[in-house]
Amino acid sequence: MKKKTLVSAVLAATIMGTTSVSLAAENMFSDVPLDHWAYDAIAKLAEDGIIEGYGDTGFGGDKAITRYEMAQLVAKAQANQENARAVDKAAIEKLQQEFDSELKGEVQNLRKDVDELKGRMSWYGDARVRYLFNKKMNGTSDNAGGRRTQFEERVRLGFWAQIDDNLSVDGRMKLENTVDEDDGWGQARQNFNQYETADAVYRNQGKFGIDRLSLTWDKGDTKYRIGRNETSLGQGLLWWENPIDGVEVEHKFGDKVTAKVGYGDTAAGGWYQSNLWTLYGDVKVQTSPATSITLAALHNVTNLSHYGKTDTNQTVYKPSGGQIGSVWIGGTEYPVWGSENGIGSFSTETYSWQDSGYKMNQISLGFNTQLAPKWNWTVEGVTNNVAGMNGEAVNKHGVWSRLKYGNLEWGKANTWHVYGEYFALGNASMDTIGWGHHLNIQGGNATATSWGDGARGWGIGVGYQIARNTNLELTYYMLKPYDKAAAAFDNYQNVGYAALSYSF
C-alpha cells in the first residue's frame, strides 16, 4: 500500500486546487482499481523524479482515483519525458496508450479554454506613413499662403475584450508625428515631435494619447456606449470613424433601419483649441441589398473658442507734448504720448479666450449603392444652418460624390480599386479646421475666426493591396475656391498624398 499512498500524494500535489475539484464534482466515482498496474508505474516515475512535488496531503492510500485524474499524472510525466531513463520512457509510453482518450480530452479542454479566451479578448493595430502636399490648402494662386508639405507617421495599438455577456470594452492608443515639414515660405524644415510649439500641442503630436476607450452594453437590438466612442455619421461628410467623448445609443429597427443618437465633445480628436460639445444623430435605411440611404445631423451646442489678441486704445491727461511717461499694465510697460490739446494716448494688447462664432449645425442626406459587381457610387449633400463671422459671405451648402471601380479587399494581396471624386463645398458647409470627415482633402481653408473659401473641383485616387493587410494609396486633386469672386484668387495649388498603411 506504500506505493499507492505515494501515488495519492503525487495526485494531490499535481491536481489539488486546480481542476481536480471541479472534475470530481462531475465524476463522483473512482474507476481506476487500487490493484491497477498504473499505480505502480506512477509511483516508480515519482521515485525517479519524473513526477515531482509530492508530500503529505491527506490522501488515503486506500482511495482509488478516476481515470481522468490518472491521465493528468501521465501528462505531467510526458512533459518531463526528455529527462527519463529508457525504462521510464517505456512506462510513460504504456501509460499514454492506456489513458489516450483521457489525454486527448484534456488537450481538447485546454484548446476549448484557449479558444474561449481568444473569443473574449483580442489585440489589433495599424501603422501608416504618409506624404502630403498642400494638406491645409494654404497654397493659393495669389500666393496668399505657402503650400505646406510634410511627412506624417502614425501608429495605433488597440484591444477589445468581452468582459461580460452583454458588456465589452474597446480601447486604442495612438502616436502621431509630423516630420520634415516645409511651410512653403522658405523657412527651415521642422519636426513637430515634442511639445515645443503651440501648433504641436493642438495637433496632438509626439505623444501617446487615448484614441478610443469605449464601454458598450449590448442589449439585444440596442447598444449603449459611453467613453471615447469612435463614431460615423451618414456617408462621412459630417463625421467618420473619429472619436467623440460622451454617450451614444444605437438601435436596430428590424433588418433595414438603424438609428443612433449621441452627445459628446468633438474636440476629442485633438484638432481644436477648446471643447466643442455636440448633439448628433444618424439614420440608415437599407432599401435593398445593394443600396443604403442615410440622414444625419450634427449640432455644436457650444461655439468654438480661440485664444486671441485684443488691441485696446486708452487716453490719459498730459501736461505737455511728446512722450510724457509710461503705464504698467499686466506686467508690461506701455509708453504714453502727448498731443497739443493736453490728451495723451496709449495702446495695450491683451490675450484671452474668445468666442469665435465658428459652429456646426449640419444636416446631410446621402446614399451608397453598388451599381454592379465592380462599380460603387457614393453621394452626400450637406447644409449648415449658421451665421457669418466678421461680416463675411456664407455659403452653407455642399455636395460630394465618389464613383469607384474595382474590388479592393484589405486581407487579399493584388486587389485594387480606382475612384474619381467631385466636390462643391461652400465655405461654411462643413468643418475644415478639423479632419473629422471622410474626405481625402481638408475641404477648405477655414480658421477659428473665418469660414474661409470652401472648395470646388475634381480628384482621383487609387488603392492597391501590395500584400495582405498592406495598402498603398495615391490621390491627386485640382481645386479652386467655392466662390472665386469672394475669395479673390482663382485656384488652390494642387492637393494630394501618398500613403502606405499596414494593419494587424
Automatic annotation (TrEMBL):
The keyword S-adenosyl-L-methionine is assigned to this record: no
Signal sequence, start to end: 1-24
InterPro entries named among the record's database cross-references: Cell_Envelope_Struct_Comp, SLH_dom
Span of domain SLH: 25-88
Keywords: Signal
Metal-binding found in the keyword field: no
Domain of life (superkingdom): Bacteria
PANTHER family: OUTER MEMBRANE PROTEIN ALPHA-RELATED, S-LAYER PROTEIN _ PEPTIDOGLYCAN ENDO-BETA-N-ACETYLGLUCOSAMINIDASE
Protein name according to UniProt: S-layer protein
